[in-house]
Amino acid sequence: MTASPQLTSDRITPAPGLQANAAPPDSEQLKAMDAYWRACCYLAAGMIYLRENPLLREPLNLEHIKQRLLGHWGASPGLAFVYVHMNRIIKAHQQSAIFLAGPGHGAPGVLAPVYLEGTYSEIYPNKSEDAEGLRSFFKQFSFPGGIGSHCTPETPGSIHEGGELGYSISHAFGAALDNPDLLVTVVVGDGEAETGPLATSWHSSKFLNPIRDGAVLPVLHLNGYKINNPTLLSRIPHEELASLMRGYGWEPHFVEGDDPMTMHQTMATTLDACYAKIRSIQQQARDGGPLLNQAKRAIWPMIVLRSPKGWTGPKEVDGHKVEGFWRAHQVPLAGVRENPEHLAQLEAWLRSYKPEELFDAEGRLMPELKALAPTSTLRMSANPHANGGLLRRSLRMPDFNSYALDVPKPGVQRAGNTYPLGVFLRDIMAENMTNFRVFGPDENSSNKLQAIYAVSKKLWLEDYLPEDEDGGELSPDGRVMEMLSEHTLEGWLEGYLLTGRHGFFSTYEAFVHVIDSMFNQHAKWLSITQDIPWRAPISSLNLLITSTVWRQDHNGFTHQDPGFLDVVVNKDPDVIRIYLPPDVNTLLSTANHCLKSRDYVNVIVSDKQQHLQYLDMDAAVRHCTKGLGIWDWASNDEDEEPDLVMVGCGDIPTKEALAATALLRESFPELKIRFINVVDLLRLLPEREHPHGLSDRDFDGLFTKDRHVIFNFHGYPWLIHRLTYARTNHHNFHVRGYKEKGNINTPMELAINNEIDRYTLAIDAINRLPELQVKGAHVRERLRDQQIECRNHAYKFGIDLPEIDNWTWPF
Amino acid sequence: MTASPQLTSDRITPAPGLQANAAPPDSEQLKAMDAYWRACCYLAAGMIYLRENPLLREPLNLEHIKQRLLGHWGASPGLAFVYVHMNRIIKAHQQSAIFLAGPGHGAPGVLAPVYLEGTYSEIYPNKSEDAEGLRSFFKQFSFPGGIGSHCTPETPGSIHEGGELGYSISHAFGAALDNPDLLVTVVVGDGEAETGPLATSWHSSKFLNPIRDGAVLPVLHLNGYKINNPTLLSRIPHEELASLMRGYGWEPHFVEGDDPMTMHQTMATTLDACYAKIRSIQQQARDGGPLLNQAKRAIWPMIVLRSPKGWTGPKEVDGHKVEGFWRAHQVPLAGVRENPEHLAQLEAWLRSYKPEELFDAEGRLMPELKALAPTSTLRMSANPHANGGLLRRSLRMPDFNSYALDVPKPGVQRAGNTYPLGVFLRDIMAENMTNFRVFGPDENSSNKLQAIYAVSKKLWLEDYLPEDEDGGELSPDGRVMEMLSEHTLEGWLEGYLLTGRHGFFSTYEAFVHVIDSMFNQHAKWLSITQDIPWRAPISSLNLLITSTVWRQDHNGFTHQDPGFLDVVVNKDPDVIRIYLPPDVNTLLSTANHCLKSRDYVNVIVSDKQQHLQYLDMDAAVRHCTKGLGIWDWASNDEDEEPDLVMVGCGDIPTKEALAATALLRESFPELKIRFINVVDLLRLLPEREHPHGLSDRDFDGLFTKDRHVIFNFHGYPWLIHRLTYARTNHHNFHVRGYKEKGNINTPMELAINNEIDRYTLAIDAINRLPELQVKGAHVRERLRDQQIECRNHAYKFGIDLPEIDNWTWPF
């Protein structure tokens, strides 16, 4: 069955119309909500302080207090406040919703309502809904063997840890894409709001199609302070902040104050208004019929919630203002264990929430409060979208073999490596028009993946100009996401994957460093989830790194940086994979494998320019399955022990290593050279260090125990040493790679400067092999002359010698 | 002489008052400016295409065309337009100004006016102001051995390459800080404006003190397109964009159109208005007397320049719209070499600028045009602020010895390592109140550097609340820069250093990855400047990485990432330095050295918590001078060949390695252990690979040729292998470090999980030394028991055993 581009329309829910205008809560309801919120605040404080006496049924004493007080109180009450109010909306409208806490360090404010609505106990039965369960729930917080103080993967309902700040909104939008029925509530801390990634991610609403996508409701939480400082947005004039939000394309609604009951009233009214607005936008967009390609960007509502940091906590401690000040950031009464007054103040604070009114004799939340929360999968903590693997359907994949390039003879013809991948992606897109997207910062065409636009164009919801018709490839229903922000794209993609869908991201090699830190955090998330049985596996994050270091003729030195791989290899081996396919068919085979995989970050390095082709599809599949191997057609060691091993890893280094091999074989036909190509970089690691690692026996079989190995690598050469230092023959590994020797160069000149060129490699071999010392002298001279000629030609004409550009494998 | 905090007031120039309202240009002047601009556009196009016939004195033919057409035309005309108009302002007001091109890939539009005002020829005499010089100037562009197509360091007047997008505004603000007389014009591309770092950097104006700092005039250049896409900000409604800019705190002025003469008129009027506004803000702030601490944030003017991409270039090529569309991004007539029609079109285009009216017989710009540019150092390309090393004064440094901690016995007392550094920085600040600043994302107090606030507080120009008095440490004249954006801080610091000043940046270890990419770009800039004799050396970028991986009790796994060092070591060895001082005195000595150095990025890793102290100041200085060495007091090999070498690198790993040494010596008094500490990480590299690298002889002398070396490292362990793989004894190096085994842990539990703890190290030694195999068996058992006890205690009480926390060196 092939899906048509119109398929999505089947899944559009009509907006619920009148239902959006549910009655506002009366004062009884608000009082109950306040009680629910007090229960949340009580739990949030309790988990920071208490290891015993969880319901304060006894007078508080030191025995009840944790030995080490860890956690973040400041953002917690505000987070719980939003959560409780969202519960009312969910119940009133049977609305599917999830909750992202930008201030992940306010996890107590999220964990509390998650526990109170029962999900926590369902997943972790020993954290049951009773006094003993509560005690255990408190104790595990920020405690060895327990859970951290952010919304870590162990948190039901979380798809956003918030340990590193800046990505809450982009994660939220990633979750909302292609989920028309979903409402994603995202609380943005005013600290986080100062980061660059967050600042630009407000523009995400320009990429939300109100027909086929869900809604995102951001709540900018101005609690006023970071660790030690006021926040910028909390101290600018009201009108300036409103102008900023309107300028970003949002309709701001303000909820400001500190009196709980007044704030409940305002929040409820505001949330009703925002919800009605969201539904009205959707209704208006969807009621005209599902004309996806006529959708327009909407001005969505957002909320500015200004409430005190550490709201309802101690107002003052030791004469210092705490509530509503930065001193409420972590543990507001830090001296509880040493200072009896602090202990008394803590008890008074905890009792101010009146736990005896909130929990029954067993320690369960009072039934009338429990009734305020939604049930089953309407609970934000139990919504399957936040455990996206549950909803994940495998990609419908065409057979990648049918995109094969015919390669009758290795090393002769040229092709752009990424273009056929674009064709493959196009057809994958065609079969998965509701759960697959392609991401790239203004570069999918530049990266030669433009074939995809035949099936789905670039999403564009702003105004159109007539000239856009001429190759603009824009459409309101496009599924290719392009914005010049690697941060935002990566955030969208992560949010999309974490909610159970599939994606593919291509980006310039040098600038993938922009998201080093996001990669780190996602890899850490995946690593932790390996040990969380209830988290269903999600699709891998597939990252194509292209426009690589060796082809930067337009751009020069700033665009030369293959070091992302060095960042990647530091992460948990169970979740990282690195591939450097050298040609079209190996790239197709690799991409096919990656797109089917789960719970990894797959990094594929492939340049976008024209390159020599080596393997037909059968050979490519065999080669990629092994991950590395001898290319017999380029070797003449014929199952004997070779005199020299030549290795290529990466498209351009492979070509130069082959050319070096040819130069050597032409001059020294008796020399036995084994040629190895490496696609799966982590095969080089020992098997104990990575699931793909080769056994020492296999490694030695390939790379020999004692022959010189000239290893021509795509990236920084030291990385190969780092992967192979424990191997038998490591001391004979001579690695060439990029060494920051660049400026504005022709490709060959750049190769020569960094010593990955054919001449340097061949000369290196001659120098290292004793049997060539004498008879090789004149060859070496000739190769040096050729190298100089290459340089001179580049300097004179600005291009490489045609015979360099057009070189083919001669045998 | 000690400077007082008030010193800055001496340097404040009174605002020039009436001078700000110079007469608007008449139509003759505008015509001349247009001619000047046409000359710029002609040059910009010429450098992309021409290798001969630079003045079109002959009919254009293929011989005149470069073999490879490289470069970016699209942004060039707009950049030159702004440059030419700024020249008028500079001349009219004798205003010191510099120019930053956010779209660095529009370098032709900058190089052109730089050449026309004569600076280029002064610096590069063979690019003289005549036909032959012009030919050479054209040819070198995007040509091997020449210059790249961004505003690379070779560009006179550039402090911002623009190869990676996002940092133009933060660089501009860094340049303006403490330069009250300087006006920094910064063109922001609408592509760049989509990046996160740029999006938040608009807030920089909230950190500009109009009394002591200069002004920044951003020109948001809406040329409408990126490589293949429209830009977001060019397609949102006018009012929305105005609202965004007002929300960011700016006063937007719009210059929109495509008719050159109308645009000249509008731009001139607008620039006059903006300049008058800037001067009026400064006058108002400064005239009340230099009350730095009463300054307020101003609403500064900015310009939105909407002009066609590739303005004045080919309107249409092969039936496709080019001018005003993304097809103008790089080379608009790419088929010139193959297609005679393209060649004809190119000739018509170039002749449309009427070069014969612009250049005299010699090929020099006509004198009446030349007169439009300012002269000498008022030329933006020759302003010394853009070659900041020329203006750099050495820091006045107190003697760091006077901050020494008294350490009578190694390994016994405890102190916070970073606090005394804060005291040292405080006194440096006091003596350098106009050219030194300290940067940190809301973390200088968290990082225990708060002593500095006694001399200079955190800069804050927004509203104040009464509670800020209680430890807020805020002031309008503060010199400590805190904003929750590592990007913005790094950008400010780079701009500050590049204009000849000094700075110090402290940040959390895990989140320094946020600026990996900025580090890469700055290191590349420094690397290139090593070979540019006219660029005077600038101060090093000093980066203190603290709140490290091993002490994340509050924050857990997301905050554990020591991998920045792996990024750093990939860059040019001539510009990178890495230090891991283990205690207070080594940190002081290291910081003293770094603050005096030039043209490096110095990375210092030091945790902020309480740690054991090892060296008195004399020993610390000796140790840091060597960079690594044997700690005799912890060793018992007494100049003999040891049985085992134990190495610590980093504060916590050093403590654990010492404790392991003590455990071994207690159990096996006859075992000869050599204890080495490494401060200067790159000493481990061979001398041929880094200026600090040890000779093999020295290395072998320290680490032996054949003894087991247990190396306890702060970061990812593979990094040590990468640095030492070529050493004689490398196969005996057993490196321990962080391996991503973290969650919420006590410090000891985290150490055990990652095998850097004393027990693992000692057991490892026992296992490796044949002589301990038998007698060591029971010791090994005991150590394992102790390790288990540590874990159990952590799991039970949430804290480490007191004897672990309070361990001291026993001998």
TrEMBL record, chains A, B:
SUPFAM superfamilies: Thiamin diphosphate-binding fold (THDP-binding). InterPro entries: Phosphoketolase (IPR023962), THDP-binding (IPR029061), Transketo_C/PFOR_II (IPR009014), Xul5P/Fru6P_PKetolase (IPR005593), Xul5P/Fru6P_PKetolase_C (IPR018969), Xul5P/Fru6P_PKetolase_CS (IPR019790), Xul5P/Fru6P_PKetolase_N (IPR018970), Xul5P/Fru6P_PKetolase_ThDP_BS (IPR019789). One of its GO terms (molecular function) is aldehyde-lyase activity. The keyword Cytoplasm does not apply. GO terms for biological process: carbohydrate metabolic process. The keyword Lyase applies. It is an enzyme of class 4 (lyase). Residues 608-809 form the Xylulose 5-phosphate/Fructose 6-phosphate phosphoketolase C-terminal domain. Pfam families: XFP (PF03894), XFP_C (PF09363), XFP_N (PF09364). Keywords: Lyase, Thiamine pyrophosphate. Its cofactor is thiamine diphosphate. CDD domains: TPP_PK. Residues 27-390 form the Xylulose 5-phosphate/Fructose 6-phosphate phosphoketolase N-terminal domain. Its EC number is 4.1.2.-. Residues 1-25 are annotated as: Disordered. Residues 1-11 have a biased composition (Polar residues). HAMAP family: Phosphoketolase. PANTHER family: PHOSPHOKETOLASE-RELATED. Belongs to the XFP family. This is Probable phosphoketolase.
